[in-house]
Amino acid sequence: MLLLEPLKPLKPLKPLEPHIPDKLSAYDLSLEEWQDWLKRNGEAAFRAGQIFDWLYVKRVGSFEEMSNLSKPLREKLTASFEFVSLTEIARQQSKDGTVKFLFELADKNAIETVIMKHNYGNSVCVTTQVGCRIGCTFCASTLGGLKRNLSAGEIVAQVVQAQRLLDATGERVSSIVIMGIGEPFENYDAMLKFLKLMNHEKGLNIGARHITVSTSGIVPNIYRFADENMQINLAISIHAPNDELRSRLMPVNRRYPFAELIEACKYYLRTTGRRITFEYALMGGVNDKKEHAEELAEVLKDMLPLCHVNLIPVNFVLERDYKRTERDDIFAFQRILEKHNIPATIRREHGSDIAAACGQLRAKHLESQ
Q1: Closest residue by Cα to residue 153 from 201, 91, 212, 111
Q2: Close Cβ partners of 333 (under 8 Å, ≥ 6 residues apart)
Q3: What positions does UniProt annotate as the active site of this protein (predicted)?
Q4: Which residues are 173's β-sheet partners?
Q5: Does the annotation place 238 within a ligand binding site?
Q6: Candidate list 82, 112, 154, 279, residue with the active-site label
Q7: How far apart are the C-alpha atoms of 25 and 157, rounded to whole Å?
Q8: Could you point out which of 38, 61, 100, 309 has its C-alpha 20 to 30 Å from the C-alpha of 325?
Q9: Which of 320, 282, 286, 10 lies closest to 140, judged by CA?
């Protein structure tokens, strides 16, 4: 059984300084912001719709390709904005169709993006930060710490790049999960802008109910997100049924204790009437016993029918010392939850043969430098 170290108090998190590039990304602006920029630069506001069409429908890679814009306007755009440069460092393709990219940003930092094939369509998993400081003890994303937040445009560019790949076979991105490297609710404003850009009818027009954002439990921003009252799906990484165990697995729990997280979740349910998915990574001998399942059911019973548990067999990470729960024990855990009327599913694995778990490809890249 894994021996867990004694808990240490957490230092207060300092807000991240925003990343300020030399130029704004073409993907950073909403339609309304494009309209404002055009007016301020002596251009007709309706050109904003044309620019959006070139960016998200035709998916061009430069302003020069926007042939229905005047040359002087294209020159203004080139002088003021840039297309996010996502340079492909590595690409891995699984036998199940999963494609994982390691992209280099303009500042030489690296991020991951994953395309997952489902029977209902193609899902893209995006990254919101360069690295992560949440410190979950079973996750590779936190290896190397946190470098910076991504801009909304850098998150958007990941989906556009994925869609360009799918264009070759006439497919499209049908859903998005914000479950890549980083904590989305620590990069809240950029994440929210990304959501609105993806959902915009003149953009990629991905339905809100086909987008899921996952958080480790940044309590103040769960309240903010509830008050946005969007149709976006919310997932909470819970991974333990009580304070003591969750604090050992997820240090963020020492900053936002379990009881506070559960209260924030109940507020979200009351405010939105939308279901929450609770993600629970099963780790052999750590959080997968029958008593853990019983305790989890007790915690969630007051949220019925608006809760669902997604059981995740933990991914092997070389730098971590967790083992996967045995198959029979996974099903036993599921049966206990269902006995208490808690809906529970077991996540289908994607890309297990290419180390597609969050942060693994980037960790290998960092080691090689």
Answers
A1: 111
A2: 282, 288, 290, 292, 293, 311, 325, 344
A3: 112 (proton acceptor), 358 (s-methylcysteine intermediate)
A4: 122
A5: yes
A6: 112
A7: 9
A8: 100
A9: 320
Which structural domains are found in the chain, ordered by start?
A: 24-82 (1.10.150.530), 87-368 (3.20.20.70)
Q: Which pLDDT score is estimated for 6?
A: 44
Q: Is 112 a catalytic residue?
A: yes
Q: What number of other Cβ atoms are within 10 A of residue 160's Cβ?
A: 22
> Has 42 been labeled as part of a binding site?
no
Nearest to 214 by CA among 200, 198, 203, 225: 225
The answer to the question of whether 239 is labelled as a binding residue is yes
User: Residue 42: what residue type?
Assistant: G
- Known binder of ligand: residue 136? yes
Which amino acid is residue 176, in one-letter code?
Answer: I
182 annotated to bind ligand: yes
Stated pTM of the model? 0.89
Secondary structure (DSSP) of 49-61: HHHHIIIIIS--S
Share of the chain above pLDDT 90, in %: 77
330 in a labelled binding site: no
CA–CA dist 145, 78 (Å, integer): 34
Tens of pLDDT along 325-336? Answer: 899 999 999 999
356-367 per-position pLDDT tens digit: 455 555 455 555
Q: Is the dihedral of CA 52, 53, 54, 57 positive or negative?
A: positive
Q: Residue 43 catalytic?
A: no
Spatial separation of the C-alpha atoms in residues 181 and 284, rounded to whole Å:
24
Residue that has been written with the tokens 């869609």 in this structure: 163
